[in-house]
Structure formats: structure tokens, C-alpha cells
Amino acid sequence: KSVLAKLEVKDDDVKKMKELTGILDILEEGVTLIGEENYATASAVLPFLHRLYQILEEDETDPMYMSTFKAFLKKDLAERCDNNLNKEVLSKASFFDKRFAMLKFLESETSVEKETIMAEIRAELLGIESKLTASERGTVQVQEANEKPAKKRRFLGYGLSDVDDEESDTKKYDAFKELEKYEKEPKLKSDDDPFLWWRLRKELYPCMSKLARKYLCVQGTSTPAERVISRLGEVLTKKRLAMLGELFSKTMLLTDCI
User: Fold this and answer.
1) How far apart are CA 182 and CA 205, in angstroms?
2) What distance in Å separates the CA atoms of residue 242 and residue 238, rounded to the nearest whole number?
3) Which residues of 204-215 are buried (b: 16+ CB within 10 A; e: fewer)?
């Protein structure tokens, strides 16, 4: 009877579990969010951690059991994440996601400086700009041609005349202008799709869109890869070990389409 009494769940225990479950629900929602594979996930990792660390901050109104739980979970997150995350890549992925492009989460909880990330992005843009094809440059010039060039009032010796700015005739493509224009774009809502945003603007941002494809395709967790391994075990059974590689690849592709 004494053992059963110890195992009895009391009303006070239920209250504690409900309060602790609130934090665990947020953690579960975030892990599920970054574990999917049909939308951008790497860009949400650092913003999610930033928000979670804010929730785990100690509050004077917290009872002792809540403070203890928060401290334990925060310490565990730090041990798992601080040295195991490529924060430079994740920060760049967030920058190319207009939901998080302002990189506010870099103000705390990370050792990465925003200036360092932006310097690396500018360096990559210069490399991409040097390899920009003629057709891609032409697309940008057509779009810019719709804007009337600035005019100057220039003295010609016999009066004043409106003439086109000479710089408009010799305008050179500048990837940094893309960057400036991108930073002025309005922020996306939390449920908007950054992939769709870039698909509609890839011609407007020929350099930036290449970097967006590079970083937004990064998976936030290993969950998608683990799903593939699980499907591999279901397809390549002991009775199918003689299956040729080409047939195996096609079979795995078809399992993704089902």
C-alpha cells in the first residue's frame, strides 16, 4: 500500500506536468518544423533556438520546479547545439529567407557577428557576378530599361538642355545593388514560402537567387536523411540483394512520389 501511495498522481503533480508540458509543446513544435523536407528548414534553426532560449530565461514568478526544469533544458540545449551547429551556414540560410533576413537572432545566444556574415555574402556575390552569363545580364538590363534614366541640366555654351545622364549609357551590373534592393524588400509572414518568393524574383536577383538556392536547400536536421535510410531498408530486403543499382535508384525515387 505504501508503494502504491508513492505512485499516486496528485492534483499538484498534474498541475506541474501541465505547466512543464507548455514548454515541451514549444520544443516539439520547433523540432517538427525543422525536421520536414518540403520547405526551407535550415533558415528556421537559429531563429527557433533564439526564441526557445528566450522562453527558457528564468522568471522571478517561476516556482522552483519550473526554474530547475528551465535551467536543465537550457544547459542540455547548449551542450547539444553550441559546438555542433554550423552557425555561419545557418545564418546565411536565414538571411536568404525573408522571414528572418534581418538576422535579429544574432544579437544574442550566438558567437556569430552579423558583419562577418554580410562580409562573406558580399564576397560570394562578387564571385557569382564575375561568372554571370550574358543572357542573365541582358535580363537585368531589360528590366532596368523600363525605368527612365536620370536627366541633367547641362550648359552647352548656347543655353540649357535636358540630356541623359552619361552613366546610364555605361551602366555596369552591380551585385551589391541587388543586395541593397533585397534588404529593402518587405518581410514575409511566418507562413509564407521563401522558395516561392525566390521563384518569382530569380530574374530580378540573378546573383542573389543563386546563393538562395545554395543555402535554402540545406536541411535543418538529419531527419530527412534518416527517412531515406528507413525506406532503403524496406526496399532493399534480403530477397532483393541482387537488385541492380539503376533499378534500386528508380524504386527509391518512386517511393518518394507515392
Assistant:
1) 8
2) 9
3) bbbbbbbbbeeb
